[in-house]
Amino acid sequence: MEKYGNWEIEYEFTPAAGDHGNLLVVFSSVGSKYGFGAALSGVQCNVLRIRDRFDGGPSYYVARAMDFSVSDAVEELITHYREKLGLARETVVLAGSSKGGSAAIFYALKYGYRHIVASTPQYFIGSYSQGHGVLGEWVLGEGQPQENVDRLDSVLPEILAETTDLDRNIYLFSSTKDYQYEEHVVHFLPALRKYSNFNFFMVESPALVKHAEVTRQGLSVILSVIYALTEGTVPRFGEVQIGSNEVDGDAAAEHLADLRARDTAAGVLTAAQLTPERATLSGHAFLPGVPAGQDEEAGARETKQLVLVRDEQAWAADAKTVPVDQLYLKYFDTHFVSYKDGGFTCEARELFDTLPDGVYDVFARVTSESEDIDRRVPLVAYRPLDRRAASGGREVVLRGDAKSVRVIKRDLTAAGPGGSVFALKRFAMEGPRLRVYGVLFLPGRNADRATHSTYYLTLRGADSTHTVALKAVKREDKVRPHMAPGDFGSYAFGYFTSVDKEGVDLSDVPPGTYTAEIAMSTGGGLFAHQAGELEVRENRASSVARRISGRNERVSTRARLRRGLRRRLWRS
Length: 572
Description:
The structure is a single chain. Helix 2 (99-111) runs parallel beside helix 6 (155-162). The chain has 14 helices and 29 strands. The protein starts with a strand and ends with a helix. It is globular, with a radius of gyration of 31 Å. The protein is an alpha+beta fold. Strands 11, 12, 13, 14, 15, 16, 17, 18, 19 and 20 form a 10-stranded antiparallel sheet that branches. Strands 21, 22, 23, 24, 25, 26, 27, 28 and 29 form a 9-stranded antiparallel sheet that branches. InterPro entries: AB_hydrolase_fold.
């Protein structure tokens, strides 16, 4: 974040990899922080990506609340890096999609750059901004007056009409399937076709159903153009088509009906929230293909469940169908189906609470009553998932990977030390709160980040059991004295404390005497140590905590370290 002209500008600069001296300037589209995301990771030249965020809001890179000094500030930033790198204007490539495409055209023509890569740009930026989410107020000003709309609508037409230097290399991407082609892009064409090297790519595909998908569908060619330009090569394509809208209807229907008939379904967990109060699982679950003689819009109604299986017994929870955009990108098979209702969400906390202890495989069950289809497939996760939560002395663990998703329910109070190192530093009442913190780690398993393990405090009484989450903090100075000589593991976060710095609130714990245990859940292991006894009284401020470990534990740890050191010295 640096100030240029009147504005603080947020940007990202990546220097060239080796001898690749050009500069690529990227403008972002609506909703993206930096344009083209990770797709530009293979670009070898210097890359300057500029975020459209000025004084807290977007500007279209043209005007922020009708203050047109934004563009001069951005140009000052570009010039700073261009001159710092010793580059001429002819070595700069401007690129962007949608809003970023409009900016690439605007800056190239206003400030004299020759290379433009613009996908699906808007021509009438005032009309597009008006009423379009946050753009309207931020770009057009308070109330979005029509006179401001008209003024911004004239920006690109005027600069195209006024520019006389036609020696430029312009690469424009659009699609007839994009509603903005007729509303915006066609208005660029008469002026742009006058330039010496104008290239127009019409992206076509039956899978194009949204504006943003044009850039995604044409991305390979967009990147090839950017790669060429940033290496000093200027390609000439003319006006060409990428892909086709032609579909063999009979072949598509046959293939999609065959997919439907196969004994399979999609079952993918993409997100999970797990707390003592709530468990929400969401993802994709649907039957592939389309029923014979039916198009996708007619749609067979599918119902969905999550099924947990252990020892040939099953527990099920109903899942709601939810719409998901662009599922075809993940599940495209020869012919296009959007699977717009292919998502699910399931509230499973109650199910988890009623499960007996054990390990469960999770399945997605998808049924279509009208087709007499009832299929169950293992649930999987594209990216590894590990969620843990505990209440009432029991922990629920949800783990998923590309092969399976499993739920484990287990008794926190049944675990033992299992080779873990434990030292209680504090266990005392301070008013109505219990202050508890100390060291707990497993030698050989790194505790090098706050998420390495999940810690719990469990209070077990005659009539009830209560579990609260603790948190891991970095206290290397406190952990190091408990490491065995010769252990070079990283255990800096092997220190637990209460989530609230004031301690654990016991307001909801009924009066009584409780045994307190500290547990650490990590990987597939569960390790627990007794911490003390707690007498919760009606007057919470008079409650008493008595340690039954801590000092002796520390002494035994030190003694063990000393004995190990003496043995090594003796051997030497």
